[in-house]
Design a protein that fits this description.
This protein is an alpha/beta fold. It is 46% helix and 10% strand. Strands 3-2-1-4-5-6 form a six-stranded mixed beta sheet, covered by helices on one side. Helix 10 links the parallel strand 4 (250-253) and strand 5.
Length: 366
């Protein structure tokens, strides 16, 4: 329910105290020491206003020449006399209930939803959306924290090759709410799509230091056997082409996808990179549900797909050409690749501080 409105004598004292003290805090102190006793002697059940009320009353007086909002200035003309007290109560309502809707506040205080929107906007409040993040189970948290502790202690004196696969389709994920057609009349605009001729490419890539390795197009469905063929063939050749300095203290990383965890794959990695590979069942265990800790997922694939999906691919060859062109463009962005390592350090540190739980929603504030 709406709190009792202030009386005109109370509003007068707020303005007087503000003029004399020339500050909100000073006005509050002066009101408490002088105005409150005076008003109570007059039989007025006065109370100490908060800073927002004092400021709003003075703004109303300067703008409209009166303590309350006149009818012609009310939101949509439907609130003939909305006091500063009501405005303050609305703001306090959202401070107590930051997830409340403007409709909730409108019903609570008997004002229009438009008025609530306008008040929040003029008071500096903005609607902020939550961020969807990978949801690790609590059972994953200790493993994630332990891995990040190892990563921070070794990242500056080791060369980790982060690897992974991603699926590219004809148009990627389509969200119609992100596309608009501005016109005075409804244009009946349409977007063609053809599901009868599916296009897709499964792509492998890696990042080591400031170098992007790949892309390599996987022709068949990825299984343990053909992944082993990749490790012994094309991936081995990629490593041969790397500068020797990057092969010092070298670690190979992949996630816990089933093809990565076959006995044959683990046996090969143990013999080829003894004690120096990261993955499920490896000497350095890779924590489950940890895409937020690998540069391919928090950087590379997003950058590639953002470029590939500018225009719809018309054929398999066209899709591959777009992917290759995107890789060439991203490979040339050396500054971004340097930032990736710094970003990874921040992520590992936040993961430790959060004891292995979600941290991506905190990144922008670091």
């Amino acid at each position: 329910m709406t709190e009792r409105k202030y009386s005109n004598p109370e509003y007068y004292e707020m303005v007087r105290c503000y003029i004399l003290s020339k500050s909100i805090r000073g006005a509050q102190r002066l009101y408490e020491s002088e105005s409150l006793p005076r008003l109570q002697r007059q039989g007025i059940n006065a109370r100490i206003p908060n800073r927002n009320t004092i400021l709003t009353v003075n703004q109303r007086l300067l703008e409209y020449g009166q303590f309350t909002t006149p009818s012609h200035a009310s939101a949509r003309g439907c609130h003939s006399s909305i006091s500063a007290d009501v405005e303050n109560a609305v703001i306090e309502f959202f401070e107590r209930n930051p997830r409340a809707s403007t409709n909730d506040a409108a019903r609570e205080f008997g004002v229009s939803q438009y008025y609530v929107w306008k008040l929040l906007n003029s008071s500096g409040y903005r609607p902020h959306h939550n961020k969807r993040v990978q949801a690790p189970d609590n059972i994953d948290a200790p493993t994630r924290k332990k891995f990040c502790e190892w990563l921070l202690s070794n990242i500056d004196n080791t060369n980790i090759m982060w690897t992974g696969e991603a699926l590219f389709t004809r148009v990627g994920l389509h969200n119609s709410r992100n596309e608009h057609y501005w016109a005075e009349c409804k244009p009946h605009d349409i977007k063609d799509y053809d599901d009868q001729v599916p296009l897709s490419s499964n792509v492998w890539a890696g990042i080591i230091g400031n170098i992007i390795v790949g892309p390599y197009f996987i022709e068949r469905r990825l299984t343990g056997n053909n992944y082993l063929d990749m490790l012994q063939g094309v991936i081995y050749d990629f490593l041969d082409d790397l500068p020797l300095v990057l092969l010092n203290n070298f670690y190979f990383q992949h996630d816990g996808a089933p093809p990565h965890c076959s006995n044959a794959v683990r046996s090969y990695l143990n013999s080829e990179y003894e004690g120096r590979w990261i993955g499920r069942g490896g000497p350095i265990p890779w924590p489950a549900r940890s895409q937020d800790l690998t540069p391919l997922h928090f950087y590379l694939w997003g950058e590639i797909k953002r470029r590939v999906y500018v225009e719809e691919a018309q054929s398999d060859e066209d899709l591959r050409s777009k992917i290759i062109a995107a890789f060439m463009e991203v490979k040339s962005a050396q500054t971004q690749l340097i930032n990736v390592k710094n970003n990874l350090k921040k992520r590992a540190q936040l993961c430790i501080e959060r004891n292995g739980l979600n941290f991506e929603h905190l990144l922008k504030y670091q």
